[in-house]
Amino acid sequence: MTTHNINSELLSQKTVAFRERSHCISCGSSNLHSVWQGKFTSSPTRSFIEKCHYSEDAIALLGEETFSLIRCDTCGMVFHQRILTPEWLNLLYSKWIDDAQIERMEAEYQTSSKREILFERGRRDTRHLLRLRELLKSNTTEQFSILDYGCGDGDFLALAKLFGFKVCGIDFSTTRHHRAAKIDIPIFNNLESLESYHIGKIQAVTLFQVLEHLEDPLATLKQIANTMEDKGILIVEVPNCRGISQPKSFLEFHAVHPLEHINAFTPITLKKMCEQAGFISIKRIPAHVTTSFVDTLRTEGLRFIQPNQTQQYFQVHKS
């Protein structure tokens, strides 16, 4: 049966299918308690789901299904206990979410113009690349290699390629594979496919807004560590869910999205999980991409004061 037929068959069902995670995704404890729960179709969750502008009638498909955001009393990790089955997760990201949906969704909460958003994203990505070059340059004289896990259309990798990095990406979307192929960037479905390509050890891995979507983020981090060279650099960025239990604003709902953001990290729990996977936290060195003297001074202050946030840098040590 083709993927298209499977998707059509699933969509013909009256409701979606879920499964439960009974142990902590970080420490494995079963000492869990609920901090926010309810029905997808009850207010105010229904209103938030409607604002996601999915291409399918999510409310009708969700029916009487419930969600439960739980906290581990052992390590403090927060995550959704009930998550979509793999088949429905695939349908969510391949059918419910498309270009039109993303544009409508962004219109709900982005206040800056598209021009400013793209410019700031370019500045951010350039700073990451400058830091990576500084952190990696003592390890090798060869071309630096970057893997962007969850690379989307490959925009970050396209910029990295211009800076002289050897690049590759992983993304589950076939549509995005085709887009990235147009700019000659190799994109794979998973780490196993990457290994079969004999691309060699990776010196840097980036995970921008990815771990919050994964059923088993710790296993993914461990697998990533195995693909990296000794003293390789990992950059991780996730929504900061510190202080959010029962969301009130649109942005808080989006941070703990009960369908998409199934893991709710804080700076502490993100650091713990990455360390469990074999990474060591390192300081994020300043990098300047600005014409403003004030911005330069503000950035230099980060040499002495590291904000507690969910964009973090790590290094893997294998010796």
From TrEMBL:
<dbReference type="Pfam" id="PF13489">
    <property type="entry name" value="Methyltransf_23"/>
</dbReference>
<dbReference type="GO" id="GO:0008168">
    <property type="term" value="F:methyltransferase activity"/>
</dbReference>
<keyword id="KW-0808">Transferase</keyword>
<protein>
    <submittedName>
        <fullName>Class I SAM-dependent methyltransferase</fullName>
    </submittedName>
</protein>
<dbReference type="InterPro" id="IPR029063">
    <property type="entry name" value="SAM-dependent_MTases_sf"/>
</dbReference>
<dbReference type="GO" id="GO:0032259">
    <property type="term" value="P:methylation"/>
</dbReference>
<keyword id="KW-0489">Methyltransferase</keyword>
